[in-house]
Amino acid sequence: NDRAIGRETMSSLAKRYGAKAAVNSGYFVTTGPYSGASAGAYLWNGEVVSNGRNRTVLLLCAEQNGVEKIDTDIVNFEGKITTSKGLSHAVTGVNRPRGANDLIVYRPMLGPTTLTDRDGVEAIVDARGRVVKVEDGAGNTEIPRDGYVISASGAAADWLRSKVSQGSAIQLDLQLKPSRPDTCKATDIVGGGPLLVRNGKAMPSQENLAHEAKRHPRTAAGYTRRGTILFVTVDGRQSSSAGMRIDELAQELVSLGAVEAVNLDGGGSTTMLVNGRIRNSPSDGVERPVSDGLLVLTGGEHRRGFSQSSKH
Fold first, then answer.
1. Is the pTM of this model over 0.85?
2. How far apart, in Å, are the Cα atoms of 296 and each of 71, 112, 261, 293?
3. Residue 168 and residue 214: Cα distance in Å, rounded?
4. What is the DSSP string of 166-185?
């Protein structure tokens, strides 16, 4: 639903954007007030939506001559706020629950309010980068449609109280930086992991996800040496299909010609649609609402979709 939290079926998402095909993509939070938030790094139209974890992601590259390319890498989150006096503090997260000594940035894509408790300080920043109000001990602050909220606790809250006040000018810098120097400049990023294929070879996993050694339904994305993009789903947890281990999935992607590939969210989330029809057999028996998806669009639909999403 074009929000940083909440869930929607792939059928609904594909229909809203007029997609010709679609698969589910990143891992997501399943409980609590931030249910549906990305559990990995997430970038949408250049906006950092989630700071994520130290896992392999799928990057959708800036188009060149109308050609879409993708890449895989581990991205590192770097964030800070800086006052007009040159005083800086690290941003520890984006659109996620605020923990002890955290300084979190909440953006309009999250929804109308921060969903935070009263144990912190929150500064409301407008589109010009000016603090319009500082709330201490209130929580669940309204997020301005063209601005953001800085929410701090513990030592970070002490810093915010002492360095920021109504009228302060704030510069916000949020980045998801690739680990490899040759990784493409991304316009969009979805969280995943582990890495499946690099330079045409199946990779042993180094990301230690609990589900890797057992057979489950799987979703993966990659590309071939010719630049063909691969979206792959594997059914599982059914009498007709056991699913795949991560090492088996990596070999399958190699057999399809992948030179780079990454595993995405699987299990009951695994869904593939083509021309409005679900083409796999979801293991829940019905389609599971998920956090986000990868859509295949024609040129006109792609432009229309970006026009809609760029409003956020």
1. yes
2. 16, 30, 17, 10
3. 53
4. TT-BEEEEEEEEESSTTPPP
For the chain (312 residues), the mean pLDDT of every run of 10, in chain order, is 96 96 97 96 96 93 88 97 97 97 98 97 98 97 98 98 97 97 95 97 93 97 96 97 98 98 98 97 97 88 41 27
DSSP per residue, 33-87? TTTT-BSSEEEETTEEEEE--SSEEEEEEPPBTTB--EEEEEEEEEEEEEETTS-
Q: Which residues pair with 178 in a beta bridge?
A: 75
Q: What is the CA radius of gyration of the chain?
A: 20
Pair of tokens at residue 250: 């990596």
Query: Which tokens belong to 283?
Result: 């293991």
44 vs 189: CA distance, rounded Å: 7
Q: What is the distance between the alpha carbons of residues 72 and 19, in angstroms, rounded to a whole number?
A: 23
- pLDDT score for 54: 85
For residues 120 and 159, what is the distance between their CA atoms, to the nearest angstrom? 12
Distances (CA, A) of 4 to 29, 116, 268: 11, 15, 21
Question: Do 221 and 230 contact (CB within 8 A), yes or no?
Answer: yes
Per-residue confidence (pLDDT) for residue 237, from 0 to 100? 98
Residue 225 CA to residue 110 CA, distance in Å, equals 38
**Which contiguous run of DSSP H or E holds residue 24?**
strand 21-24
Q: If we measure between CA atoms, which residue out of 65, 312, 252, 195 comes closest to residue 292?
A: 312
Count of C-beta atoms within a 10 Å radius of residue 294 = 23
Q: What is the pLDDT of residue 301?
A: 54
